[in-house]
Amino acid sequence: MARKALITGVTGQDGAYLAQLLLSKGYEVAGIVRRSSHSQVSDHRLKWLGVAKDVKMVDGNLIDLSSLIRIVREERPDEIYNLGAQSFVQSSWQQPLLTANVTAVGVNNLLEAMRLEAGNARFYQASSSEMYGLVQHPIQSETTPFYPRSPYAVAKLYGHWITVNYRESFGLHASSGILFNHESPLRGLEFVTRKVTQGVANIALGRAKELRLGNIQAKRDWGHARDYVRAMWLMLQQDKAEDYVIATGRTTTVEDMCKIAFRHVGLNINEHLVIDPALFRPAEVDLLLGDPSKAKRAFGWVPETSLEEMIVEMVEADLAALRSVQG
Ligand code: GDP
After folding, report:
1. Cβ(147)–Cβ(189) under 8 Å?
2. How many CA atoms lie within 13 A of 122 on its CB side?
3. Helix, strand, coil percentages in the chain from 3-state DSSP, rounded to 5
4. How many beta carbons lie within 10 A of that of residue 250, not counting itself?
5. Are residues 124 and 199 in the same domain?
6. Residue 107: CB within 6 Å of ligand 1?
7. What's the domain count of the chain?
C-alpha cells in the first residue's frame, strides 16, 4: 500500500517541491486548497514541476476546523505537512488578525483534526527563522530564544509551540522544522530574491530600467527550497519527533545577493538599483544565520545548492519566462 501524504499550502513553493519529492518516492499526495468564488486554484507551480495532475486537490481551509476533520477522516494520511500560511511578513502588518487566524490558530486546527481522526499519523509544522527576529545569539539554533518582530512571526511562534505542546501533551509524532529563508524559481514575487531575479531579467531584456528595494543591508541565510523539502520529509522518517533548524550556515546581505543576479547578466548594480524608503519595514530582522548541525547529525541533511547557483537558476528561469511572454 502506498503511503499517503496530506499537504496544506500545496500550491505554494514548498508545497509544489514537496509534492514532487513525495510522488517520486511513491506516495499518494493530497493537497488542501482554499477555494474562493472568483479564482481558479492556482496550480501553476505544480504544473511547472510537471506534477499537477498527480496531486489530488481537496477543498478545505485552515481556519475551518470541520473541513480539516472531514479531510483527515476521508484521506487517512500517514503524514501531514502543514505548509499553509499567510506567509508574507510585510502583509502581516496590514492583516494581523487574518495572519493570526491562519498562521497560528490554523496549526492548532490541523493538530486537532489529526489528534481526533489520525492520532498515529506524523505531523510536520513549517516554522520559520523569522521567529528569532531580534536575534538573541549571532548564530541561531534550536535552543536560541525567540524574539518575533512582526505579526507573522508572532503567529509562527504560536504554531511552533502548539506543535511542541501537542507532542508533549498527547504523544503525537509532531515535528517543527525551523526553516531559514528558502527560495527557487517558484518563489512568490513579493519576496526579495524573486523580486530581484525577475527585476534583473526585465532590465536585461530592456523592459525596465530600475529595481526598487528597501533595506539592502538586511542579512539572510538563503537556501534552495528543493533541498529544504527533503529535510521536511527526513524529519518525519525519524523514530522520534523533534524540532530542527534547517539552514545553510552562511549569511549574505540583500545587496550582495543582488550583485550575484546583476553580475550574471553583465549589468552594473549601481546603474539600476534605487533605494525606496517606502519599502522599509516597521520593524526589521537585521540578521539571520542558522546552525543546521542537529539535522546533519540526526539524519545527514546538508544543503546541496549554493546561493550563487540558486540565484543564477532563478535569473535564467525569469529570463526564459519573460522571453516566452514576448512570444
Ligand atoms: P523575510 O525574511 O521572510 O521577510 O523574506 P523577504 O524576502 O520578504 O525579505 C528579506 C529581507 O529583504 C528583509 O530584511 C527585507 O526588509 C529586505 N528587503 C529589502 N527590499 C525589499 C523588497 O523590496 N521586498 C522584500 N520582500 N524585501 C526587501
Report:
1. no
2. 19
3. 45, 15, 35
4. 14
5. no
6. no
7. 2
Q: How many Å is the maximal CA-CA distance in the chain?
A: 58
Task: Write down the pLDDT at residue 41.
Answer: 74
Residue nearest to ligand 1 atom 23, measured at CA: 213
Domain with 208, as residue range(s), is: 188-220+250-287+305-326
CA of 266 to the centre of ligand 1 (A): 24
Assigned domain for 17 exists: yes
For ligand 1, what atom is nearest to the CA of residue 150?
A: 4
Ligand 1 center to 178 CA (angstroms): 18
Pairing verdict, β 122-128 and 223-224: unpaired
- Across the chain, how many H-helices and E-strands are there? 12, 13
Q: Is the CB of 102 under 6 A from ligand 1?
A: no
Instruction: Give the burial string for 94-123 (b: 16+ CB within 10 Å, else e).
Output: eebeebbbbbbbbbbbbbbbbbebbeebbb
Is there an atom of ligand 1 within 6 Å of 213 CB?
Answer: yes
Tens-digit pLDDT string for the chain (327 aa): 899 999 999 999 999 999 999 999 999 999 999 987 666 778 999 999 999 999 999 999 999 999 999 999 999 999 999 999 999 999 999 999 999 999 999 999 999 999 999 999 999 999 999 999 999 999 999 999 999 999 999 999 999 999 999 999 999 999 999 999 999 999 999 999 999 999 999 999 999 999 999 999 999 999 999 999 999 999 999 999 999 999 999 999 999 999 999 999 999 999 999 999 999 999 999 999 999 999 999 999 999 999 999 999 999 999 999 999 865
Q: Are residues 97 and 195 in the same domain?
A: no
Q: Which of 89, 135, 192, 254 is the pocket-test mutation for ligand 1 (most atoms within 8 Å of CB)? A: 192
Q: Are residues 45 and 14 in the same domain?
A: yes
